[in-house]
Predict the structure.
Amino acid sequence: MKTKEFENAALALFPKDTLAFFNDGNQYGFNNYIEKELNKIGYSVNLTPEIIKQANINHIDLLLTHHNVWEDYFELRDDCLRLLEEYGIIHFFNHLPLDSMPFGPTGTLANDLDLKVIDKISKIDKYAFGVVGELEEPITLLLLTEKLEKIFNHKVRIWNNNNRLVKRIGIVAGSGSDIESLFEANTLKSDVYITGEKKLKTLLYAKHIGLTIILGSHTFTELGGIRQYAKLINNEISDVEVIELKDEFLE
């Protein structure tokens, strides 16, 4: 399979208007584009020198990530681009388009929790990055915590601001620390709000409105989405091997 075939398969999963809306050069695309034969693809949430070195050790031809290596990363960006070129590894990233899709990070996490989605939150224009969903039956916060830790394969942090059983859950995978998303989740009567990042004002506001927050880290709330995306691409180009690379736990 050639690089162009991968690109076609990776972008065919998205409506054309979604790609057009987010087409600013930073939300999806390539770094170190090389037209060549691809035999092995690796994926991760983040692009770092450590991830690129893992890819090189595993003989990866193309590295698929959720996050780009942003302009404001300064020498981190320079080092990543240098290593990609040195190792001859192609990098393809898909950020906000993936975030807005049912198979993206938020949608995948909601599906893993067996939620019935009742509304969407955290929107840019018509594109939503968060959902509010319901469990079939209420469960304890402890049981929800255990389920999440099994999904993420690491511990979560909890700010318990009510004593209710959990029936309705708001989710914004990744960076969902904005007050507007908490407000929307609370307006839709969520018992718990799950995201990957917090700020002081997030915690103060959540406490005031009685909304329990579960923090699962930016990386690990989004890992399921890039994993699902890689699987969908692999379904279309089954003649390549796809492997998951290990993101470092920082948060």
Residues 105-222 form a domain with the Udp-n-acetylmuramoylalanyl-d-glutamate--2,6- Diaminopimelate Ligase; Chain: A, domain 1 fold (CATH 3.40.1390.30). The chain has two domains: 3-94, 105-222. The longest strand covers residues 127-139. The two ends are 36 Å apart (CA to CA).
